[in-house]
């Protein structure tokens, strides 16, 4: 995020706040996970592939007996997803879409073989999503955003670790998306996160926080 908490600007084009070195670091973190989750708005706005960038990391995963890329996961309340999005069209991996029960039939028909559409309650329940992922062998889930997803995982106290990279500039645009939205956060002055590490990545600062059950 920018120094004042924004993860993008308000223009149609995605603003890259990070650096090549940090993108590579993130790729390394991805390689340690079983699945990666973004919200439907991130798919619509950024059209991400969510694949590993490094062939060597992909090969090491395969050598360990796991898929070369991560299972892709998204959440949607209304089902507004395009089957031509790169989330669905790239990577020989499972794509899982969690949505409300009443949305499942139409969305499953629209996506066809591009993804499995799963009833996650009404409204979409994160504990229900996580429980289903567990049954599928997902033990380490990387949540990449956007702001609404970050807010839900943090306010519902479902995150174990936060890796926050701060860019050395300000955006100052109230119309731009922020790292989190307003909410009641259990990570409060009475129950703060624990700062586990601070790492310099060029002019960026990586802050690694442990949360809740991961504080130990």
From TrEMBL:
InterPro entries: DHFR-like_dom_sf, RibDG_C, Riboflavin_Biosynth_HTPR
Domain of life: Bacteria
Gene Ontology molecular-function annotations: 5-amino-6-(5-phosphoribosylamino)uracil reductase activity
Residue stretches making up the Bacterial bifunctional deaminase-reductase C-terminal domain: 1-202
Keywords: NADP, Oxidoreductase
Pathway: Cofactor biosynthesis; riboflavin biosynthesis
Entry keyword annotation includes Lipid metabolism: no
GO terms of biological process kind: riboflavin biosynthetic process
Name of the featured protein: Deaminase
Organism: Actinomadura rayongensis
């Amino acid at each position: 995020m920018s120094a004042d908490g924004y993860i993008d600007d308000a223009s149609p084009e995605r603003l890259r706040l990070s650096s090549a070195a940090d993108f590579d670091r993130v790729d390394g973190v991805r390689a340690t996970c079983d699945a990666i989750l973004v919200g439907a708005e991130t798919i619509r706005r950024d059209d991400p592939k969510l694949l590993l960038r490094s062939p060597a990391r992909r090969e090491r995963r395969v050598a360990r007996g796991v898929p070369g890329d991560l299972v892709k996961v998204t959440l949607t309340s209304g089902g507004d997803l395009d089957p031509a999005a790169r989330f669905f069209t790239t990577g020989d991996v499972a794509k899982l879409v969690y949505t409300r029960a009443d949305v499942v039939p139409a969305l499953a028909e629209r996506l066809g073989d591009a993804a499995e559409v799963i009833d996650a309650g009404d409204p979409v329940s994160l504990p229900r999503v996580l429980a289903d992922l567990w049954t599928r062998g997902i033990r380490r889930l990387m949540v990449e955003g956007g702001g609404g997803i970050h807010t839900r995982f943090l306010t519902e106290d479902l995150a174990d670790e936060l890796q926050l990279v701060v860019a050395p500039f300000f955006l100052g645009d109230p119309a731009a998306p922020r790292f989190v939205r307003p909410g009641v956060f259990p990570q409060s002055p009475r129950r703060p996160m624990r700062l586990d590490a601070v790492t310099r990545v060029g002019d960026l600062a990586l802050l690694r926080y442990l949360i809740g059950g991961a504080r130990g």
